[in-house]
Amino acid sequence: MFADLLKRLTAPAPETLPDTDARLALTALLVRVARSDGEYDHDERARIDRIARTRYGLTEDDANRLRADAEALESEAPDTVRFTRAIKDAVPYEQRMGVIEALWSVVLADGVRDPEEDSLLRLVSNMLGITDRDSAMARQRVEAKE
């Protein structure tokens, strides 16, 4: 179902993604981080839906559909390193920085900073070209809002 998007993402020189594909790829990354601790619960799914509604101005139904599509894409996507690097090459920096905040929001949704999630988020941040310092500042902004 997502073969064309994955092919474009993993091309040797990926082009900037159209907005709908970028939304899907970035939401799939949220799903991947949420699933990284082996528990993908209602709070994390609700947080991803809320992020999609707020970030993209979607209705509740559209956010649910985007998350469902992102769950399917995430399960078909290559390893995290290749997937994240592909997103980095295809998505502008400004959008990637916002995604780091969204990722921290998902990690913190259940009130627990799991070591697996922390580790994956550190890797993802680095692969997206976001420094540890900027990622930490993003986490602090999210914690201040919680």
> Helix coverage percent of residues?
over 70%
Average residue pLDDT = 86
Identify the overall geometry. globular
Strand content: under 5%
- How many strand elements? 0
- Structural class, by secondary structure, is mainly alpha
The name of the CATH architecture is: Orthogonal Bundle
CATH class: Mainly Alpha
Q: Helix count?
A: 8
Q: Please describe the biggest sheet, giving its number of strands, its sense, and whether it closes into a barrel.
A: none
The arrangement of helices and strands along the chain is HHHHHHHH
Do you know the CATH topology? TerB-like
Number of domains: 1
What is the terminal-to-terminal distance? 36 Å
The CATH homologous superfamily corresponds to TerB-like
The radius of gyration computed from the alpha-carbon positions, rounded to a whole number of angstroms, is 14 Å
Uncertain runs: none
Q: Summed up, what is this model?
A:
The protein is mainly alpha-helical.
